[in-house]
């Protein structure tokens, strides 16, 4: 038995790194990795240690097994986490065989301790044998970019830091591909990095039709489908077009992504859809691919724009929101994302939005001011209120009330609670940004506390809107109270009053929207907001004409933008078709 095996066999506490490292590992597993793995399968955790992370893996599993070489750690794991669905056993992975078939295999920290390369390859082969036809593999090890592995042995502790490319290639030989890579800790001086990966292999599904134009829409979060719902219909109704959505994770600490919720949402719209990791992108081609988000870090590595660019004749970006916020940070978020380097065409809502892209985006995409598909519903009259029993206020706070401060939630919360409780002849619809609730969790409001706050608001007369589609609330409301965000300018197109809630400590509005400020009512304090609300309740609306003028400047082709974009996409796919 080598030094490493001897050390770990006699180990009673495996957490030899800083506490912050394991906290980060837990966050990455919880927010990014586990949501991408289908629930209900079987899981095996190799080198399970004291069972803490095995217990976390069991959340997605019907049956979970943990193996470790240390009897002390296995005893501790069984005492802390063992039950009918999660068991722990002592096992020497070098000398013992593995049995069964598993949907998820976890090896967190295992291979840094397997210093013999022959043993390393043998264990990987064992993993291949126990992996189901569709299997997810979680790896965590310390690796190096140096050509040769770094081997340390001080007589008591032994470890190996393998070259990362060689390490990953070992798993690729068995059909696994990288879906996610997250850095836990980097030591520049030594040239090593602790990394956690999610790999996957499965039976692949063919999604394209060689006799048709194949157009993919990358779908990451349900709230954004309204942006392209009508565009999808236009494309799908065209003869000779195969249009479909690729359901792709939205990896963000403030968003609770679920494949099943995404699929359920798209199915409800009759959208043809496929799961991203069931497509063999090396064997597919797309005539066009539509991205609805510029944030590369929120996508799996195999859906990166540069990767899709290699297999797509045309790459398109339709902004996920209507750019509004000010500050250099927001300019970077909206216009300078590295993913935009690999985009051919950006469709914007107006010449004003086009100018913002041209001014700030350093990449050479063609920017076309053709209109935004998400506004086509306006022409159908869906924004018109159906009942008039109460004056209805739509309140839509942003989530950034701890940093950036586009949100004014903490400024107006108490006032609006008092307003609702003391004025039962009006109704406030509370519809915050989709990341709002997770942001509350981040600052110490757990789910139970948040639930209690919402329950109290409901009892006071608030309507808490948790629907995916915002349009019913647009329809039901008489005015909107909005922070910098899509709703602030989208609501203009309804013709109804817009109240901009200004945070004096925030970054405010971008150049384009500053030019529209005369069409908004502006409140930066509860006193100002109170006067505006009661004036509008009394039908004293002095900005109707200005809103009409602002709408004409801000939006093009409301009602026909989807058709025009669909026609333009098809026209472009006929130009020098790449894969014929």
TrEMBL record:
The keyword Plastid does not apply. It comes from the Bacteria. Gene3D superfamilies: 3.40.50.12580, Vaccinia Virus protein VP39 (3.40.50.150). Keywords: Transferase. GO terms for molecular function: transferase activity. The keyword Ribosomal protein does not apply. This is Glycosyltransferase involved in cell wall bisynthesis. It comes from Marinospirillum celere. The lineage of its organism: Bacteria, Pseudomonadati, Pseudomonadota, Gammaproteobacteria, Oceanospirillales.
């Amino acid at each position: 038995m080598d030094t490493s095996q001897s050390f770990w066999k006699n180990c009673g506490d495996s957490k030899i790194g800083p506490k912050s490292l394991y906290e980060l590992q837990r966050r990455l597993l919880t927010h990014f990795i586990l949501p991408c793995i289908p629930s209900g399968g079987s899981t095996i955790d190799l080198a399970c240690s004291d069972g803490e992370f095995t217990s976390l893996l069991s959340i997605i599993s019907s049956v979970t097994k943990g193996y470790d070489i240390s009897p002390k750690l296995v005893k501790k794991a069984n005492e802390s986490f063992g039950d009918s669905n999660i068991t722990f056993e002592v096992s020497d992975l070098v000398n013992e065989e593995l049995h069964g078939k598993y949907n998820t295999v976890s090896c967190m920290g295992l291979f840094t301790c397997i210093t013999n390369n022959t043993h390393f390859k043998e264990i990987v082969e064992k993993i291949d044998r126990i992996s189901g036809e569709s299997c997810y593999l979680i790896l965590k090890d310390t690796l190096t970019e140096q050509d040769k592995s770094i081997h340390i042995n001080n007589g008591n502790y032994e470890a190996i830091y393998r070259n990362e490319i060689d390490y990953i290639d070992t798993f690729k030989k068995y059909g696994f591909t990288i879906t996610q890579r997250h850095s836990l800790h980097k030591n520049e001086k030594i040239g090593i990095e602790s990394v956690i990966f999610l790999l996957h292999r499965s039976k692949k599904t063919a999604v394209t039709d060689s006799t048709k134009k194949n157009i993919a829409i990358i779908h990451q979060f349900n709230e954004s489908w309204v942006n392209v719902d009508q565009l999808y219909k236009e494309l799908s109704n065209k003869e000779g077009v195969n249009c479909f959505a690729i359901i792709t994770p939205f990896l963000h600490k403030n968003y609770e992504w679920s494949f099943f919720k995404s699929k359920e949402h798209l199915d409800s719209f009759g959208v043809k859809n496929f799961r991203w990791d069931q497509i063999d992108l090396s064997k597919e081609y797309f005539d066009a691919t539509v991205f609805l988000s510029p944030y590369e870090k929120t996508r799996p590595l195999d859906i990166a724009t540069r990767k899709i660019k290699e297999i797509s004749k045309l790459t398109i970006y339709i902004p996920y929101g209507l750019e509004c916020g000010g500050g250099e940070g927001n300019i970077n978020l909206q216009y300078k994302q590295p993913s935009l380097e690999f985009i051919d065409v950006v469709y914007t809502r107006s010449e004003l939005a086009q100018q913002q892209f041209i001014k700030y985006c350093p990449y050479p995409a063609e920017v076309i001011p053709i209109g935004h598909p998400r506004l086509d519903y306006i022409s159908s009259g869906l924004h018109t209120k159906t009942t008039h029993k109460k004056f209805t206020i739509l309140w839509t706070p942003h989530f950034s009330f701890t940093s950036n401060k586009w949100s004014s939630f903490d400024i107006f919360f108490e006032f609006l609670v008092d307003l609702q409780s003391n004025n039962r002849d009006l109704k406030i619809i509370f519809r915050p940004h989709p990341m709002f609730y997770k942001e509350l969790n981040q600052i110490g409001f757990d789910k139970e506390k948040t639930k209690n706050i919402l329950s109290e608001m409901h009892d006071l007369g608030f309507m808490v809107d948790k629907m995916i589609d915002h349009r019913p609330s647009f329809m039901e409301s008489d005015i909107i109270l909005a922070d910098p965000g899509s709703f602030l300018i989208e609501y203009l197109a309804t013709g109804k009053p817009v109240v901009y809630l200004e945070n004096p400590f925030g970054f405010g509005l971008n150049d384009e929207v500053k030019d529209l400020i005369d069409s908004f009512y502006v409140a930066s304090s509860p006193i100002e907001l109170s006067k505006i609300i009661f004036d509008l309740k009394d039908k004293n609306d002095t900005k109707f004409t200005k809103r009409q003028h602002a709408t004409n400047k801000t939006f093009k082709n409301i009602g026909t933008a989807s058709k025009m974009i669909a026609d333009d996409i098809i026209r472009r796919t006929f130009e020098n078709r790449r894969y014929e």
